[in-house]
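Q: I have two molecules that I believe assemble together. Could you output structure tokens for the complex as a whole instead of separate predictions?
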Amino acid sequence: MASAVMNVTAMVLDWMSVAFDAPLARAVVFGVHIDGHLVIEVLLIAVILFQLTRKSYKPPKKPLTEKEIDELCEEWAPESLHPPITEEMLAQPPTLESAAGPHSIIDGREVVNFASANYLGLVGNGKIIDSCITSVEKYGVGSCGPRSFYGTIDVHLDCETKIAKFLGTPDSVLYSYGISTIFSVIPAFCKKGDIIVADEGVHWGVQNGLHLSRSTVVYFKHNDMASLESTLDKMTCGNKRAEKIRRYIVVEAVYQNSGQIAPLDEIVRLKEKYRFRLVLDESHSFGVLGKSGRGLAEYCGVPIEKIDIITAGMGNALATDGGFCTGSVRVVDHQRLSSSGYVFSASLPPYLASAAITAVDYLEENPSVLEALRSNIALLQKGLADVPGLIITSHPLSPIVFLKLKKSTGSAKTDLQLLDTIADRVLKEDSVFVVTLKRSTLDKCHLPVGIRLFVSAGHSESDLLKASESLKRVAASVLAELL
Amino acid sequence: MVRLPYLTALTTLFSYGLLFAFGQLRDFFRKLIDWTKSKDLKGYAPICLGLEDFYTRRLYLRIQDCFGRPIASAPDAWFDVVERYSNDNNKTLHRTSNTTKCLNLGSYNYLGFAAADEYCTPHVIESLRKYSPGTCSVRVDGGTTKLHTELEELVARFVGKPAAILFGMGYVTNSAIIPALIGKGGLIISDSLNHNSIVNGARGSGATVRVFQHNNPSHLEEVLREQIAEGQPRTHRPWKKIIVIVEGIYSMEGELCKLPEIIAVCKKYKAYTYLDEAHSIGAVGKSGRGVCELLGVDPADVDIMMGTFTKSFGSCGGYIAASKEIIQYLKYTCPAHLYATSMSPPAVQQVISAIKIILGEDGSNRGAQKLARIRENSNFFRSELQKMGFEVLGDNDSPVMPIMLYNPAKIPAFSRECLRQNVAVVTVAFPATPLLLARARICISASHSREDLIKGLEVISKVGDLVGIKYFPAEPPKYEQDRKKLE
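A: Yes, here they are, computed for all two components at once.
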């Protein structure tokens, strides 16, 4: 069997070599001697070229037909616009029936109001109301246009000059709403590629501004200077391109979420060491801190030129609405064209601008109101020092007195429920109006929730005493199981 | 739609090119001169790198006196414009104490509530005395007064929805509501010419944003089909929800949105609709209820209706009207409700009085008169301008009418010449409009009388001839036509 195959193979090979040794094969073409193996090589090359010209096999792409798209659209079912409504979503806040001064009327009863940030007691001030009435009679209520299209009224320009003179800066910009100030200022200066170092306890307005700016944002531990220094170090070491990238530190003077006060002199020292610019939100410290109410810079003894950008909402100490931003001439001029909340929105109603001017006048003429505020804060702090189950976490000089649970139940939700019960009972039984810190689902801050009391210069000693007594009593009964 | 003739496009591009070249030349010389001076930035990066504010420094500053003109009286039909002067070629402007009385064709005063009103102002003063200009508190804490609850019910009734929620500023309404309604995994489809507040709100929400061609329901349908079939980018999972955002009247075009067709498309594909009626609430519609009434759309078909009180009601602030559950959810979680100072009580009272006048509940028919007058005024003004040969955009019944200017040199020419003849107009250029399509925008008010409008038309016609913006042939006046027929 094997020998037969061998014989056949040998015969075929002989026949092939005879065929290749045929006279045609011995031709000389172009000086190349045509030999047997040359023909096979040419054939192989021809086969290789043929395969290369074949297209590679890809599975065919079939776009969706109209009918298939119709089916997909039919079966797609969207979620509802709102999640299912729970019990806590139905809670209604109490409705005021009078001005939000130190004493207000809720449900026909007079209550002591610790829920409005009326630090200088200017709600209900006669002079302010008179200037507003003149303004309404002259200019109407609204300003009917953005600043660039005949919405600039002379009271706006007067207000800007007044605030700038009060603080000692060259110029200022007026915004039409407190919260939109900070989230328009930050994207106007910080663009993609810039570095921002912010405190983790900043409020939602600042967080939204940071998100809209599309810069790289790094948070440091709340009011912790060592954490700030190490973060600044980490962001700048090895980065020699300081000339091109802009760098900012964003902090609040008095934090709404905890009542702490930022140590400005430390921050300025760090900022100069690492070459960062400082953005300071003074909503709750303008008109409160400092010998004459000029804010955190005066309180810490820092010259105002060292802070690059100061923003503040006027809805707190000045008892009006709106906000302002101030800094060097370059900072202010830049905002007039590139700050979206300034350019694309109607300007502040003129009567609120005149109210702001009158309020700053009042503050300049009566610095004693700050003394009254400071003594009230001290009294309240002393009175609330030994509330069972709650502990004060705010700075001794902060006008927001912040109480949190000594021992948290473990979840923010149950904490909030307990605190809400305390606040409700304090209002119903003792007519003292305090509020808890409610957090939105969009808020990224994780600091503990608590009860906030906004102290005003208009509160009397008996008001403060009443509040402390009432809180002690109700907290003792509500938190009895926890203690 | 804007039809841009070729010659105009060429000349406009040439003008911008010339301005750009001059600007670059000046920048070059500035850099040379500054080389010798020391830089005192001390290692900080500059606030604005060279090219970022090129447009501001070299183009905008030349015509800065046409923008931001201060006024010294209420923005009514006639107002006092403060004169300004400049010593350094428009880089800084200084106020004087002189004022000129001008006809106001630029403020958003559609129903004439801008100045002190005989019914509204006494109520506003009363509320000032009772509630003070500010509440210093957020709505959830101690900022809700009886006025706020009254206005929320009144707005809901006026607009035709079950419930409403108020905010202190229109811009914040959009920026804070859209993130609360939709987040990552959702899709927002917005009109290409939507306002900056909507763009910011959409960006802040984290959802994917797609744009459809302005006012084009068939393109919207295409985009919807494509997006639903494809799903989320990269993972191709189905979208969680889709919201389509449109505006009632587009403020730079003056045209109404094609609401019935867009609602039909959204219903077919189960997308939610969000209607921003900033310019149309109170100004259009037989009883002032906005675009829905004008175009015959049932308010129940639009999921969320948003509006502002700045334009037609002479106050400030914004609202959202939707179903009871959505409003309850928003009151629980919307950041503008939880963290922002509540609306000033006198401003709330102004809106309450204005809505009562519009509905006729104050006992007179001033509301109906105002609505009829603004419709008459807008239609009269628009038809006269078109007869004169100007290129005017916008639909009938809309009180906003842009007049096309195109060329950058015509912007300051038109604005300054009109001011010299005591008519105050608003001119808009890049970046609020596309680069080649600069325009002057007229806003008509119900407080303009027929004589005011005729004076305005005369001045605009004269200035239009001087500046050369009558791009269409004018219709000859009627007696000339009759004479030609006789000959």
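A: One point stands out. Chain B touches chain A through 119 residues (CB under 8 Å).
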